[in-house]
Design a protein that fits this description.
- It is a single chain.
- This protein is mainly β.
- The chain is built from 2 helices and 17 strands.
- The chain starts with a helix and ends with a strand.
- 32% of the residues are buried.
- This is Outer membrane protein beta-barrel domain-containing protein.
- Residues 1-20 form the signal peptide.
Length: 267
Amino acid sequence: MQKKLLLALLAIIQSSLILAQSGPAYRKGTFFALWGWNRDAYTNSDIHFKGNDYDFTLHKVKASDKQNKISYFNYLRLDRITIPQTNLRLGYFIKDNMAITLGVDHMKYVMDQNQTVDIDGHVKPEYQSHVNDDGSIKLTDDFLTFEHTDGLNYINAELEYYKNFFHKGILNVNGLIGGGAGFLMPRSNVMMMGNERHDAFHLAGFGLNAKAGLDLNLWNLFFIRSEVKEGYINMPSIRTTVSSDDKAHQAFWFAELTYAFGFNWHF
């Protein structure tokens, strides 16, 4: 679904080269801020766990995002607005139609429970019975729960280019493309082989991304925006227990669909 959305948005943006108006989408010196929400999809990934008495890799692990039920309580109450999967971004136009931005993509990653995957290496001796004769293992609650649900937290800077392709009265419709890079500060919630649950923020790795989107601006003041973002995440240093000797490493591709609202101003 995300690939179809991306292709559709790219087609719209390409058409803007033909339909573009003479004026810029946004002028140099404009600031903007946005807040929104996201849905996410992840490729399967290998996850390597290492500690003092274990060293193993789980292969092609499936994971999903965690969508909160849409309601005023979950999405609009001020004391709960960071509970869903959210986006915050600030931007400044360094020239007409071109902005630099800084933002946080608060995605959520949950390993699908009770899936069966291949495993290499050795687990703790008391959990060896969980490994099947064919080299597979079922990821049950007593063996492993693994998620980044207080945020996958992709903190990134992006360069964005906008093109206006429709203007009438108070309405401007703009296309945008962009890309960026940043670091991952997940709060990983992990319980593994009888260890105490660990849930803490930790600088875990880096990410890269590209995106395309549509921007509807009213009165040159308020806007609503949707983007399709695809990227790569590599986290070689995921904390899994209270001990710094216990770490996990994983890398995967992600697709993110965002829908946001914001405002812009020009001094």
